[in-house]
């Protein structure tokens, strides 16, 4: 029974972004859209374990949510204009909630001129008239269905503060008249950088979830890849869209090797490379080649080139670390920042030895720019271990453990700590 | 939707000669039917601020806020959404020298 409930919950999570995006387009009301989507999901969790998962879960959920919205709007006379608009939508048969059409209109989520409601949703969430931190939070909330509490944890702010930020952003969208659409012409290219940044965050939220016991959330990585593909189709000339797509594909191809049978995180050098998805890697490399042919390099293409170095190495020992260290130097030039510097330090440690890497890591720690950033402490601990400085390594592993965000990361660090303690 | 475009400048502001003529902008926006009204304003030295407190009308010389920016004029536009309002504002010659605040009209 638990298995059924989990499968139903998973199907719901996968469809969240589609249902919310479609309801926002129907009603223009972001809060109503989210509430009605939640109602539809609750109803699915009740019904599907008995009735079975419908053939098209997304269509079932969208129809149920839309009927709920119609019902709510009928009861509120002030929304008469919206109701008239919604009632004209194809497939809106006006049936009461709880009796969704058996086979709803398959075209219910697309209207032809714009490829995808979810892409409209992300461009609206990423509108430059919204504050930068609100764009990411709003995307994670509406598109990925993360709870306000989860987003607050990821941003290291309190839940009421995050709730306030989301309310303000939604109010600004409504009051300032931010349109729900993918922009065209020069505005499209101008907004792409923000959208790419948010898509990459969405992917990373799925790939290394910032909170909770599950290190990998497939539905988020799959959604980020799908949306990036759609965007690449819309913007064939933008080499960075392809760069990001290649980067995601190459990371995603390694996902099965990242977590072992007990759910512990497996570092790159210890991964079983036979479980890497060869087709995914081949596609990632081909997309990267296509991007590089345009001769307009950018940070995503450089990061994808790093991922390509890893994906192309037959064994961990064959990894071309000098090349990766060079790529990180290039990335630090294009997009300087402490996180890039930390990655460069790790690559230098592999290319020139842990001592050279530790010098860079310690400089970063002393700068205080990454205070509280878990990977800095985990990297430092690993370098000390490789240098055989056991007691310092044990202290560093304990520092890292105090900051590790997921159970899988804590288990990995616990194991390493046990190795260095008492040596 | 209706928006107020507040045309603002940093003070002191010296207009580069000939570059600030908004005539072409006004003609284009009137032609598109999006501009409802607009005016240049006298400077803050001509401003008087009015308050009523305890039934008495209190007048103060100058603008109510002591800011470095000053409002040089305004336009009222009626267009589809914020994207169109931003496009209209970005074409205003003052956008290149000062700044334009885009404010939606209060609704409901």
Descriptive terms for the model:
heterodimer; A: 423 residues; mainly alpha; 19 helices; 0% strand; globular; B: 108 residues; alpha+beta; four-stranded antiparallel β-sheet; two-stranded antiparallel sheet; 2 helices; 19% helix
Précis, in short:
Chain A has 423 residues and is mostly helical.
Write the layout of secondary structure elements.
The complex is a heterodimer of chains A (423) and B (108).
Chain A lengths: L1 H26 L2 H22 L5 H19 L4 H8 L29 H9 L6 H11 L5 H8 L3 H18 L9 H22 L10 H17 L4 H14 L25 H16 L5 H14 L8 H14 L3 H15 L1 H14 L6 H13 L3 H14 L3 H14 L3
Helix pairs in contact in A: 1-2, 1-3, 1-5, 2-3, 6-8, 7-8, 9-10, 9-11, 10-11, 11-12, 11-13, 12-13, 13-14, 14-15, 15-16, 15-17, 16-17, 17-18, 18-19
Chain B lengths: L1 E9 L12 H10 L2 E6 L7 E6 L2 E6 L7 E10 L3 H10 L7 E6 L4
Antiparallel strand pairs in B: 1-5, 1-6, 2-5, 3-4
Overview of this protein structure:
The complex is a heterodimer of chains A (423) and B (108). With 423 residues, chain A is an all-alpha fold. In chain A, 68% of the residues lie in helices and 0% in strands. Chain A has helices spanning 2-27, 30-51, 57-75, 80-87, 117-125, 132-142, 148-155, 159-176, 186-207, 218-234, 239-252, 278-293, 299-312, 321-334, 338-352, 354-367, 374-386, 390-403, 407-420. The termini of chain A are far apart. Residues 91-114 of chain A have low confidence and may be disordered. With 108 residues, chain B is of the alpha+beta class. Chain B has helices at residues 23-32, 82-91, and strands spanning 2-10, 35-40, 48-53, 56-61, 69-78, 99-104. In chain B, the strands form two sheets. A four-stranded antiparallel β-sheet of chain B has the order 2-5-1-6, with helices on one face. A two-stranded antiparallel ribbon of chain B has the order 3-4. The A-B interface holds A 127, 129, 175-179, 183, 187 and B 1, 3, 80-83, 85-86, 102, 104, 107.
